[in-house]
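Supplementary Note 3. Input sequence used for the single-chain structure prediction.
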Amino acid sequence: MADVNRGNRPLSPHLTVYRPQLNSITSILVRITGNALLVAALLIVWWLLAAASGPAYFAMVDGLITSVLGDLIMLGSVLALWYHALGGVRHLIWDAGYGLDVDTADKMGWGMIIGSVALTFLTVIAI
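The predicted structure, written as C-alpha cells, is reproduced below.
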C-alpha cells in the first residue's frame, strides 16, 4: 500500500466530530421501538397462553402483567406502538417524494415525538 501522508485527520466521521441530528435519532428510535414491540407481543402471547393453561398459572402471570412494573411496560409498549406507527406514516410520506427537505423532515420528527406522547395519553385515558 502506498505511504500517503493523510495528515492528522480521521479517515471517516467519528463520534467526536459527528453531531446527531433529529432525523437520525428518530430513525434509530423507530428501529428500537420495533424490537420493543416484539417483546411486548411475546408478553401478551404469554398472558394468553397462561389463560388457556389453567387458573393457577393464569393468576400468577396476570399478577405479573398487571403489577406496577407490568403496567409501566404496557404503557411503554403503547408509546412504542404509536411512535412506530407514526414513523411508518413518515416513511410513507417520504416514499411518495414529499417532505424530504431538512425543515419539513425536522417538523415531521417533532410531530412523531409529540404525536406519540399525545396519542399515548389519549389511549390511556380512553381505556
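The chain is about 75% helix and 0% strand. The first helix runs from residue 22 to 53.
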